[in-house]
Design brief:
Length: 87
């Protein structure tokens, strides 16, 4: 178990839309995210099933969004809901 990543997943659940994470390797972070989410499911923890991992559209080289909730959630104007920026 990657305890730092697991802590980020729990933090994401506490935020209405999710969190933004700074990383120097977004693709590696995504692989670790999906691996950790699968490990949690194997342990019987399904709380993270609705968290998705998205590349930031504004800073794709260094930021990832962990989005909480419906992956296809739309605002009234049709745009995807951005995550709450959290440190």
């Amino acid at each position: 178990m990657d305890t730092a990543l697991r802590d980020l997943l729990w933090t994401t659940l506490d935020e209405p839309h999710g969190i933004e994470v700074e990383t120097n390797d977004p693709e590696r972070f995504k692989r670790k995210f999906y691996t950790e989410r699968k490990k949690a499911e194997d342990e019987g923890i399904y709380d993270f099933a609705n968290i998705s991992c998205r590349t930031s559209p504004t800073e794709p080289q260094c930021r990832i969004w962990l989005v909480n909730g419906d992956r296809n959630a739309k605002r009234q104007d049709g745009e995807s809901k951005p995550p709450l920026i959290s440190k």
